[in-house]
Amino acid sequence: MVKRFDKNGRTSQRSTMKDKQTFANLSDFLQQLQTTPTIPPVHLWQPEYCGEMDLVIKANGEWWHEGRPILRQRMIDLFSRVLWKEGEDYYLKTPVEKIKIEVEDVPLSITCVDQIEQQGQSYIRMQTANQDVFILNEQHPLSLREFKGEIRPYVRVRYDLEALIQRQAFYHLVDLGELFEQEGKTILKLSSGSTFMELIVA
After folding, report:
1. Which top-rank group of organisms is this from (predicted)?
2. What's residue 19's pLDDT?
3. Are 125 and 70 in contact (CB under 8 A)?
């Protein structure tokens, strides 16, 4: 359900009627995305804010709607393509609607890390669970930070959206890098093309 609010933050009495249209519009737009392999230009859209949807992206990467997990991966993939972040808030955004959702940690997750060769250089390639594929570089930097007492690795994917690097993918990333000790700390050094990164991992 989408909760709509007036200027004072009160729930709109017309929300029930508008909810059906909102879902219909979102569904229609997502169907159109199925024929387009690229990420849509979400940054160019300036839609009206339409309220909140009971959709939660859990810290473990699961998507839940109205208290139930979404099991259709294709649906999750489509929703992920219209994710948008403003400040600390997350939305699903189309050219005509912007719907707020809840994200417990970050909205995306890295499930695959490998190394490729292009024009004589080695690059680290990453892939999200939703089929985003990109090269680790200055536009896609790594970071480590705490979440509920656990230090987690992240990477920026697009439009300020970050992905959690899943455990097995991070182990592979470590294998592609070089570990060394400096001032009592363990540092992971990575190279991807002309980009060099260092992470304090212990």
Report:
1. Bacteria
2. 54
3. no
